[in-house]
Amino acid sequence: MSGAIPASLGDLPEIQYLSLNANKLSGVIPDNLIEATDTLLGIDVRYNAVHSPNTTLITALNQKHPVASPSIDLTASQTIDAEGLLVTDTRVFDVDLAWDTVAYTDHEGGYRIYLSSVTPDVFTQQADVAGKASTSVTVTALTNCTPYRAIVHSYTTAHTGEPAIPLNNNNANEVESDGELGNVVEFTTYGCSAIPVIDLPIPASSISELAKNGTGVATVAATDADGDPLYYSITAGNTGGVFAINNAGVITVADTLDYETTPVYTLSIEVSDGVNVASAPESVRIDILNENDTAPVPSVGAITEPSESAAIGTAVVTISATDADGTTSFIYSMTGTAFAIDSASGVITVNAVLDYETTPSYTETVTVSDGVNEATVDVTINIGNENDNTPVPSVGIISPPSESAEIGTLVAAISATDADGTTSFIYSMTGTAFAIDSVSGVITLNTVLDYETTPSYTETVTVSDGVNESTIDVTINIVKANDNAPALSAAITHPTENAPVGTVVAKITATDPDGDTFFTYSIIRGNDDGAFAINGSGVITVATSLDYETTNSYLLTVAVSDVVNTATIDITINVINVEVDIGGCSVRSGAAFDPVLLFWIGLSLVYLMRKRPIVISEVPPPE
Question: What is the pTM of this model?
């Protein structure tokens, strides 16, 4: 029985039992069947592809179920047809099957695949595919060159524990288990007796090493008398798996080719119909065509270090290159301007004036091109230093020597630097007042100094590095020393014997080559009676009454000191005598008189005082 449950079943009167178990029923259970449940003693609709959204009906059907446990889930036992079975590929020992998926109501499920190869049909299970969404399977372990029939049986997981029930041998479409059979398909496995035959000769081929994957290279042709599908394979010579062959015999590029690694491939080919295999008696030769796809490999030759005085055009180094593509002619270029490179030969030469002190080393980038590809290499050229710079002298701390300094006294030190790195120099200097050590550059006193004669010296020091030399002027100032006694002179004014105290009689003047202006003065001899005094300015004055008749001349020694040095000067001071004119008579002061004469002189003085005054005059001292 198949198809949908007729709705008229619900109208049948006095039905006590209704068994629809294991039929090919499908679709929705009619709702009016619930009316029959009132009179039915039992009903069984299991193992059909039927279902109902009416929960009241499902409950009533379960209650009338003849099984001891009336609570069986009706929906769990329902399956639907698995239609659309077809063969997608047939081979020698296996087959690919596919079908339309079926939707179960609640539980998961799967598919059992049955095959039969004899008549009458005896189907045996060959595969069990879990998952109600499954749609295909590969059945293996078949016999070659054999006809088969196949069916698919669907099931739910609620009954996976039940043993598989063999299908009725008389009707392949009749089911005796929980499930529904779909259509039956027939197929015959490959692998009958004929051996594939490969067409000869197989022509040689060539392909560029730049060919992309998938590019066709060659085709191997074969035939099979049985008409079986043929399968091609490369069995040897395919180093690196760079080629592939499809089932049409077309060889294609499958990976990167490289002429420089493998210029020729010799491939061995086999053709199979699934059972029989034929090997090509000839190999397939494939020549790889060389392309300019490899960059040159530059190398730096021996470098001849150029001196900083090297002339422009001096060869320094040669750059060469090799190329896996076999290129032998290259184009050379480089950065920078200090050096130039010949574009054809790769010879690098000096192209500018070099200066080690400015740039002791150059690193330039050389580019080598084969016209398509290029590569670079860095070239470092060190410059050879030469003694081509003059020393740069400098004057160290100068210790100005005193004019009293001893010969050999350190005065100054001359040092020098040299951009060429020279550290040893030769020193010399002009003049004889000082000497310089030719190795150390130390200047020392070489003669007796006299500030008053030469207060400063400027000498020229020459510094040599053995090739180049330079000069520097050194000024040495002499420190004045107090080494000269004052120079003295005197201006004398002879006093009269009646000169009052304080009268200036002389002025001592002192000068000092050392520039001193402060002096101390003293009378150290000839002034025993203290007749004279001298002040701090060298002025000599009368210090007490003078008396011509007692001492008419003084020889004084005056000492003058600048604190360090003392000088003396002798001066003579003459005392001038004084005469008295009495009545026309000159009386020399201090003359001796007779008493009688004194009497008369007295009378005369009285008389004369009445007539005219008395005149007293100086009388020069006797010569």
Answer: 0.43
